[in-house]
Amino acid sequence: MIRRQGLRAVIATCCASAVFAAPALAGSAGPGSPGAGDPYFPGYGNGGYDVSHYDLQLRYQPADDHLQGTATIVAAATQDLTAFNLDFALTAKSVRVNGAPAQFSHDGLELTVTPTAPIAEGTQATVVVEYEGTPSAADVDGVNPWVRTSDGALAVGQPEISAWWFPGNDHPRDKATYDIAVTVPEGTEALSNGVNTRRSTLAGWTTWNWRNTEPTATYLAFMAIGQYEVLDGPGAFGQPYTTAYSEKLGPLTGPAKASIERTPEVVEYLTELFGEYPVSAQGGVVPAEGLSFALENQTRPVYSHKFFQDAANVSVVVHENAHQWFGDSVSVDTWRDIWINEGFASYSEWLWSESHGTGTAQELFDHYYNAYPADDPFWQVPPGEPGAENVFHSAVYDRGAMALHALRNVVGDEVMLDITRTWVAEHRHSTGTVEQFIELAEQKSGKQLDELFNAWLFSKGKPAVSAETGVAASAAREDVPTPPAVAEIDRAHALLHDRG
Question: How far, in Å, CA of 474 to CA of 477, rounded?
Answer without folding.
Answer: 6
